[in-house]
Amino acid sequence: MYAQLRETAAELAGILWREHTVYRERGGGVVIRGEHVRRWISLAPTGGKDQALLRAGRILDGGTTAPARTEVVVDLTVPVAELATVCRRMLAEVAAAAEPGPGSGPSRSGRTGKAPKPGKAPKARKPPKAGSRHTGAGSWVVLVLVGIAVAAWVYSVFGGPGY
């Protein structure tokens, strides 16, 4: 089965991308990586004769692979051009899922997330618990320095030796 998967993957890789890497994965399947498009496709045995599990996903920064965004069982007896069509559709779904949608950009806090659903009020923030710390050490240093500056100014204006 591995030989059939490897052959099919090599043909698919040539159709899909000019630059690609084909290698065997731990589970006995074959992975096709397109580094230049930051996508991957894998063919894995399913246990059925002439069938394979086709999965597609993204390649993250640093070269690691994200989990599959989409998967489908395919028949390996169909022409490779038909498999390439299925792969292109899956890769398009992966690309669409990777693009940020409206309202999913960075928010004020720098986090990314989904925009609230229309008609739903955003979640209210919980009030702080009694005794919780609101002011950090840096803020206390600034407050003390401001206090010293104000005291020095008051002393120079009202309590200096020449008054």
Word description of this protein:
By secondary structure, the protein is an alpha+beta fold. Helix content is 34%, strand content 18%. A hairpin with a 4-residue loop joins strand 2 (30-34) and strand 3. Helix 1 packs across helix 2. The longest helix is centred in the last third of the chain and has 22 residues, at 137-158. 14% of the residues are buried.
Task: Throw out a few tags for this protein.
rod-shaped, 163 residues, 18% strand, alpha+beta, 5-stranded antiparallel sheet
Instruction: State the shape.
Output: rod-shaped
The first-to-last residue Cα distance is 99 Å
Radius of gyration: 30 Å
Strand order of the largest sheet: 1-2-3-4-5
What's the total number of strands?
5
How would you summarize the topology of this molecule?
Elements: H1 2-16, E1 21-24, E2 30-34, E3 39-45, E4 51-58, E5 70-75, H2 80-98, H3 137-158
Antiparallel strand pairs: 1-2, 2-3, 3-4, 4-5
Helix pairs in contact: 1-2
